[in-house]
Design a protein that fits this description.
single chain; 382 residues; alpha+beta; seven-stranded antiparallel beta sheet; binds zinc ion
Length: 382
């Protein structure tokens, strides 16, 4: 099967290249926000939105009026418009919230460029990119397949990254004849119907404590900087070196934690897909769950949604199947041996005995078995 795969590398632009990257990002954001505003105004006046084509024409005119828009990579601006038009499509299909203005403060600052006529080339030590020329990068693996596009981003710690998207061929993995039910949980990251429990990655606690400590330090330094700025009117936050230093320290720590989490999720999603032909999970309503403030932190921490996303695309790649079951299926209330419904159970009840058949259950293993059985009987989709 042909799939799109991203190859991510760290970039080491020169100062000049870095300025241009930041300009491309800034201009992409400007174009997105400008046309989002136009879209809304047109909609208010006429009851109809804009189209990608009408925006694209307007962009050509806008470039005449604002010549600095010609400086960055032209694909970046076009892709920004496409992005906006997709955001509206998803909104009208009720798949996403209303598009919002992009903020400079958003930690994900990126632009997308496209491959045409060899404008992107990958060599051993550098990558050729439109407008930027050859940019040095850290090559950690070989890029395979046909190049399609590239995302260039800068993260809060000030590092630059590139994700090269290429179309490449994946082969199905051999069938194992095994199926598994997966119960995603708060106490353990997940429990399998085989009885195996996968705990949260161990580093979490100490690293997160450290992060909280450094964040407190950051807010103290912010207060200090504010006082200094009151005394010296022409001072800006950029001049407060201690504050800036701490800000980067916090950003680096966040990056580290997030990288380790991603690694953990990738390891497990790959392993499960390799070892099973069918994987059954509950259809999570993550947006709904996040509204419950008590659970919110734990849930966002374990990133279930990301895990399910990985499982789903990897299953597709490797010829396996992810089966979802109704999220209201009472997986933790039912006895997996005799089917007796024992009613709702508070989160603190970890084990229970079925009054009907006397089977003793671990709450999560029992739920995972129920999920598996239900998935094989009443799947709601893949
Ligand atoms: Zn029972």
């Amino acid at each position: 099967m042909l799939i799109q795969k991203a190859f991510k590398f760290r970039l080491f632009p020169t100062d000049e290249q870095a300025v241009l990257i930041n300009k491309s990002i800034g201009c992409s954001r400007f174009v997105y926000n400008h046309f989002l505003d136009c879209w809304e105004k047109t909609y208010q006046q006429t009851g109809k939105g804009l189209t990608y084509n009408s925006c694209s024409k307007a962009l050509t005119q806008l470039k005449v009026a604002l010549p600095w828009l010609k400086e960055p990579d032209k694909f970046a601006l076009q892709n920004s418009l496409k992005n906006l038009s997709h955001a509206y499509d998803r909104f009208f299909k009720k798949q996403a919230r209303h598009p919002r203005f992009k903020s400079k403060r958003n930690p994900n600052q990126a632009y997308k460029t496209c491959f045409t006529n060899k404008n992107i080339e990958v060599a051993d030590q550098s990558i050729k990119l439109p407008k930027l020329g050859w940019v040095r990068y850290a090559r950690s693996r070989q890029v395979e397949g046909r190049l399609l596009s590239a995302f260039i981003r800068v993260v809060p710690s000030g590092k630059y990254f590139i994700s090269l998207v290429a179309e490449t061929e994946v082969k199905e993995l051999p069938k194992t004849g095994k199926v598994v039910g997966i119960d995603l949980g708060l106490l353990d990251f997940m429990t399998l119907s085989t009885g195996e429990k996968i705990t949260h990655p161990k580093f979490g606690c100490s690293m997160e404590q450290k992060l909280r400590r450094e964040q407190r330090k950051l807010s103290h330094r912010y207060e200090g900087a504010k006082k200094r700025m009151l005394k010296q009117k022409n001072l800006t936050l950029m001049d407060c070196a201690n504050y800036q230093k701490q800000k980067i320290k916090v950003a680096k720590l966040k990056e580290k934690i997030s990288n380790r989490k991603t690694d953990f999720l990738h390891q497990w999603s790959t392993k499960l897909v390799k070892n099973h032909d069918q994987l059954v999970i509950e259809d999570l309503n993550v947006n709904g769950l996040l509204k419950n403030h008590r659970l919110a932190k734990a849930i966002s921490e374990v990133s279930w949604a990301e895990f399910v996303r990985q499982l789903t695309y990897k299953a597709k790649w490797f010829g396996k199947e992810v089966i979802k079951i109704d999220r209201f299926f009472p997986s933790s209330q039912m006895c997996s041996v005799c089917g007796h419904r024992d009613g709702k159970k508070a989160l603190y009840i970890r084990e229970w005995t079925c009054p009907q058949c006397g089977a003793h259950h671990d709450r999560d293993v029992n739920a995972a078995i129920n999920i598996l059985n239900e998935g094989l009987k009443n799947p709601i989709g893949i």
